[in-house]
Amino acid sequence: MSQRSDKVEKDVNASTANKLLVICVDRDNDVGEKAGIVTPVIGRDACIEAAQRLALEDPEDADSNSIFSAIKTYEDLVSKGYQVEVVTVAGVKDRGVQADEKILAETRKVLDRFSANGAVIVSDGEDDESVIPVIQNVLPVVSVQRVVMKVSRSVEYSYAVFGKYLKMIAYDSRYSKFFLGVPGILLLIGGVAAVFGITTEIFAVLVSILGGAFLIRAFDIDRVWSSWSKPTPMGFIRMFTMVAGVLLILSSVPAGVASIDPELIESDSEFIVKITDQVIIGQFIAGVLPILWTGLGAIFAGTLLSNWIGGVPRQISDILRIIVLIALYPTIYQFTNIMISDVSSFTLIPPLLGGLAATLVSATILFKKYRKHKDQEMVSD
């Protein structure tokens, strides 16, 4: 450790400017006009107090953040072995020549107390940086740092904020997967299609990929899937029941088509008339319903089982979801009978009322047990 510290000290002493003055520039004198602080403000503690007073007077003023940034720069340089002092200098409200003269005079005043051989300028914009040539008359400027606030509405910061977000899109995997990955796939497929001359056919593929990407991101399907497929017992249960449920739901469509009477399909009537015929619709729904409900039940049961094993306190809503699914089945099944057999619509009322009653009774019992359980936990605590 001693050899390393000696090397750092040797490198610092060998540099051109090893006694630095960190200068925070406030050309329009907000620190004086708003907080009533007399400049120059010299020293770390004095600058912290000035920044806090200015932030209390005007929380939206960026100069307080510039002072804090200058203090951070001061601490970084100290940790690297430099001899450093931090100051805040200010001009006048109207800027101009008088402001520059005041900043120059304050800089000379500081140099009388701390004989630096290099300056680090910290500012919040181009206006403050315009005094750099003035400071260079009395002290070499070795570095300039600009403080950019993401919430700033000033036009002069727009390019910097835009650059920050571009960097996030390029290097942050949370954003690059969508903003770079999807366009990259589309451009790659489009380029291959152009080479082989199948641009017309590939357009539908590109639109489908883009639409699917928008839907996945809009409904957070990727995040839901990543949380469902984590390598845990709960994740494997959810993943298995989800895949099984989706396959059952998809297979319900051919089952519904197969349940339609072939004589109705093979008739000479127009296609539009066929697909709007209530008997055909009723037979299709009757064929779809058992497998579709089984698939939905598998997904809901998997969610309930994984939450129960993981101790997630959402089991009441999971149980109610399954109960509602079961309660709706007789109603929808009777609806298909009405469409196929042309029975009275009043036959739909008993299963509807029965399903509603079962749902209300189940919800009441479950919520009473939940409240009782909560009350017991509160008493035990």
Structural summary, described in words:
- The structure is a single chain.
- The protein has 381 residues and is α/β, with parallel strands linked by helices.
- It is built from 17 helices and 5 strands.
- It has helices spanning 2-14, 30-33, 44-57, 63-79, 96-113, 126-129, 132-136, 158-171, 173-196, 199-218, 221-228, 233-258, 262-265, 271-276, 278-310, 315-341, 349-380, and strands spanning 19-26, 41-42, 83-90, 118-123, 141-146.
- The chain has a 5-stranded mixed sheet with strand order 2-3-1-4-5, with helices on both faces.
- Helix 8 (158-171) packs across helix 9 (173-196), helix 12 runs antiparallel to helix 15 and helix 16 packs antiparallel against helix 17.
- The longest helix is centred in the last third of the chain and has 33 residues, at 278-310.
- 21% of the residues are buried.
- Residues 1-15 and 271-275 have low confidence and may be disordered.
Précis, in short:
By secondary structure, the chain is of the alpha/beta class. It contains 17 helices and five strands. The chain is elongated and about 105 Å long.
Q: Structural class, please?
A: alpha/beta
Gyration radius from CA atoms, angstroms: 36 Å
> Largest sheet at a glance?
5 strands, mixed
Give the total of beta strands.
5
The N- to C-terminal Cα distance equals 52 Å
* Series of H and E elements: HEHEHHEHEHHEHHHHHHHHHH
* Helix fraction by DSSP (H/I, runs of at least 4): over 70%
Average of the residue pLDDT scores: 78
Overall body shape: elongated
Strand % is 5-15%
* Number of H- or I-type helical stretches: 17
Low-confidence parts: 1-15, 271-275
How are the strands ordered across the major sheet?
2-3-1-4-5
